[in-house]
Amino acid sequence: MATAETRRLTAPDRLRRSLSNGRVSAALILLPPALILFTLFVMLPLGESVWYSFFSWNGYGTPTDYVGLENYQRIAGHSVFHTAVGNTLKIVAISILLQMPLALLLALLIYRKTPTNAVFRLIFFVPYILAEVAAGLIWSFVFDGNYGVTASIAQSLGTESFFILADRDWAFVAVMTVIVWKYFGFHMMIYIAALQSVPEDLIEAARIEGAKRRQIVRYVQIPHIKPAIIVSAFFAIIGALQVFDIIIPLTNGGPSNQTHTIVTYLYTFGLTRLNIGFGSAVGVILFIAAITVAVFYQRFFMQRGQA
């Protein structure tokens, strides 16, 4: 009888029954604010950036000087943009090949819940808590060849001061050093949380079977934290595409535009020079790159990691 009664329900009755269970009503209440915020702060600015990228515009008034794809052609032929893309790829590489292994190594050493390990976790995590601008200013003093730590070291060794941030070959090495120092603690905490979730029974069973420490790490712990490693790599790649706040106080893209990333390139050649159309074109390219990486990574890595 209940089934027949359900079948006789009209569409409005079924809608009212759905509303009564709270699912649709919750969606109707929570979804519109999220859609409004997403539209106002993501979709509209993105659409405006695409529109402005077809104009030569300084940001004042209404853009009228339509140039088509000229901004994109200028970007493609600009050697500094090529340098910025190369530097961004270097940050991706150093994040995956150095920063993540360093974070994993430290996580394996201090993941157990002891007071001493808690102190070390706090020490290693402090750089990530610092604001990027503050970290950049601190390290700009460290690398200062006149008054910084490097100057003191050179003086104590009786050698001439070395201005790292003014050297075309070493400036970006210094930038990457700061990036590794700043963010390895974030990845370390991801790995620590994952390692603490590995069942101790498995580790103990491996020990009973005669497995050594290195074998336990390789065959027991790392396979269990593979999803965390995949997520960590995703954050490292997306973060590399967004590096900006550290470089500005360190080198401001110099010397000779050798330390620009895509975002600092946008800021320097777009915003500070009032080439808003040009900067918008760079922003569109960056957005497409970020979306492509996110979709590709989700499709080929995260789904396989969950399988």
From TrEMBL:
<dbReference type="GO" id="GO:0055085">
    <property type="term" value="P:transmembrane transport"/>
</dbReference>
<feature type="transmembrane region" description="Helical">
    <location>
        <begin position="228"/>
        <end position="248"/>
    </location>
</feature>
<feature type="transmembrane region" description="Helical">
    <location>
        <begin position="276"/>
        <end position="297"/>
    </location>
</feature>
<feature type="transmembrane region" description="Helical">
    <location>
        <begin position="91"/>
        <end position="111"/>
    </location>
</feature>
<dbReference type="InterPro" id="IPR035906">
    <property type="entry name" value="MetI-like_sf"/>
</dbReference>
<comment type="similarity">
    <text>Belongs to the binding-protein-dependent transport system permease family.</text>
</comment>
<keyword id="KW-1003">Cell membrane</keyword>
<keyword id="KW-0472">Membrane</keyword>
<dbReference type="InterPro" id="IPR050809">
    <property type="entry name" value="UgpAE/MalFG_permease"/>
</dbReference>
<feature type="transmembrane region" description="Helical">
    <location>
        <begin position="24"/>
        <end position="46"/>
    </location>
</feature>
<dbReference type="GO" id="GO:0005886">
    <property type="term" value="C:plasma membrane"/>
</dbReference>
<keyword id="KW-0812">Transmembrane</keyword>
<protein>
    <submittedName>
        <fullName>Carbohydrate ABC transporter membrane protein 1, CUT1 family</fullName>
    </submittedName>
</protein>
<feature type="domain" description="ABC transmembrane type-1">
    <location>
        <begin position="85"/>
        <end position="297"/>
    </location>
</feature>
<feature type="transmembrane region" description="Helical">
    <location>
        <begin position="118"/>
        <end position="142"/>
    </location>
</feature>
<keyword id="KW-1133">Transmembrane helix</keyword>
<feature type="transmembrane region" description="Helical">
    <location>
        <begin position="170"/>
        <end position="194"/>
    </location>
</feature>
<dbReference type="InterPro" id="IPR000515">
    <property type="entry name" value="MetI-like"/>
</dbReference>
<keyword id="KW-0813">Transport</keyword>
<dbReference type="Pfam" id="PF00528">
    <property type="entry name" value="BPD_transp_1"/>
</dbReference>
